[in-house]
Specification:
CATH class: Alpha Beta
CATH architecture: Alpha-Beta Complex
Number of domains: 1
CATH superfamily: Cysteine proteinases
Order of helices and strands: HHEHHHHHHEHEEEEHE
Helix content: 25-40%
Radius of gyration: 21 Å
Largest sheet: 4 strands, antiparallel
Mean pLDDT: 94
Structural class: alpha+beta
Distance between the termini: 77 Å
Length: about 300
C-alpha cells in the first residue's frame, strides 16, 4: 500500500501594503485649517513683527533660484520624497518624534525645534545620531514671564545667536555635557517635561553645548510657491498664523487640492489649505543648514562628556 504524501499547507499570501502616495491622501476635514480655541503662544502683538523685511535684516537669504521647482513638477517631486523618505516629515516619523506643549504658550519654540531638527537630519545623511532639542531652552529667554508667547522670528534669532540645549532623552546625556528638559507642558515619551526654569538657572556652562546646535543658514520664503519648494526639497518651514505657530513638514494632495502637512505640538498631524498657507507666508522661515560636527557620532566634539 502506497504511503500518502503529506500535504503541505499553503502559506497565506501576504497582501502588499500599497505604497504611500502624497498626491492622493485621505483625512477628515477636522484636521484642516485648525485654529486653537485658546491661546497657544502667538499673539497678534508678536505676530506683527514677523515680516520678510525683518527676517532679511536678521541675515536670512532670499529664496535661491536653484531650489525652485516648477508647479507642474510638484507631484513628481513629492513622489520622489515618498520613495526615498526624504521629507522633513519622514525624519520625524522614523524617529517617532512628537512634542506636546499643552497647556503652555511655547508654540513658536516647538515649531522652531522641529525646523532645526529637520535640517540637522537632512544634513547628517544617516550618519551619527538624530537630535532632539529643548524648546524651553529658547523660550525661557524669549519670554522670561513664561506666559504670553513669543514671535517666530524672535525665537529664531535667539537660536541663531547662541543655539539650543538638547533634551535629556535617547542617550543624549552621553553625548552632551549639558541638557535641559524640552517643555513645561505635558510632553510625552519623546518630549521630556519639567518645571519652568529661568535662563539664569540653566546648567552652569550651558553655552558651550548650545554653540553646537545653532541654525547657520536661513531662507526667507516670500511666496506660496517658495514655501512649497522648500518642503519639496526636504526642509521644514516655520510659520505663524491664526494665533498659532506650526512647522510645515510635507506636501499632500487631497481630491486634487494641495495642502501643507505639519505635526502639531499636541501629538497630532494636521493640514493647512492653500488659503491658510497664503495667510502664513509673510512670517515664514526655513532653516536650511545648521552647525555640523566633524564627527556626527560625536556632535559636541571636544565639549562632549
Amino acid at each position: 500500500m502506497k504511503k500518502k504524501r503529506p500535504v503541505r499547507r499553503k502559506r497565506p499570501v501576504k497582501k502588499k501594503t500599497p505604497a504611500y502616495d502624497s498626491t492622493s491622501v485621505k483625512f477628515p476635514d477636522t484636521l484642516v485649517d485648525y485654529v486653537p480655541p485658546k491661546a497657544t503662544g502667538y499673539p497678534e502683538s508678536k505676530a506683527v513683527w514677523d515680516t520678510p523685511e525683518n527676517l532679511e535684516m536678521m541675515g536670512a537669504r532670499d529664496f535661491p533660484d536653484d531650489l525652485y521647482i516648477d508647479p507642474k513638477d510638484w507631484k513628481d517631486a513629492a513622489r520622489e520624497n515618498d520613495k526615498y523618505k526624504s521629507w522633513a516629515e519622514s525624519h520625524r516619523v522614523k524617529w517617532g518624534r512628537f512634542t506636546n506643549q499643552n497647556p503652555t504658550h511655547e508654540c513658536t519654540c516647538h515649531a522652531l525645534a522641529q525646523c532645526f531638527e529637520a535640517a540637522w537630519h537632512a544634513q547628517r545623511l544617516g550618519e551619527g545620531h538624530p537630535i532632539a532639542v529643548s524648546q524651553i531652552s529658547i523660550y525661557a529667554e524669549a519670554n522670561p514671564r513664561q506666559w504670553g508667547g513669543a514671535g517666530c522670528q524672535q525665537v529664531l534669532g535667539i537660536a541663531m545667536r547662541r543655539g539650543f540645549l538638547p533634551e535629556p532623552i535617547r542617550g543624549q546625556k552621553d553625548l552632551f555635557q549639558h541638557t535641559l528638559h524640552g517643555t513645561c507642558g505635558r510632553g510625552n515619551n519623546d518630549n521630556s517635561s519639567g518645571r519652568w526654569v529661568a535662563v539664569r538657572n540653566f546648567p552652569e556652562g550651558w553655552e558651550t553645548t548650545a554653540q553646537h546646535l545653532k541654525p547657520t543658514e536661513v531662507i526667507n520664503p516670500r511666496t506660496f510657491d517658495q514655501v512649497i519648494c522648500c518642503l519639496l526639497r526636504g526642509r521644514a518651514v516655520g510659520v505663524g498664523r491664526s494665533g498659532h505657530s506650526i512647522p510645515y513638514t510635507h506636501v499632500v494632495w487631497r481630491n486634487g487640492q494641495i495642502y501643507a502637512g505639519y505635526s502639531d505640538s499636541y501629538d497630532v498631524v494636521r493640514y493647512d489649505s492653500r488659503r491658510m498657507i497664503n495667510s502664513a507666508v509673510g512670517g515664514s522661515y526655513c532653516i536650511w543648514n545648521t552647525t555640523t560636527p566633524d564627527d556626527w557620532a560625536n556632535p559636541a566634539g571636544d565639549d562632549s562628556p
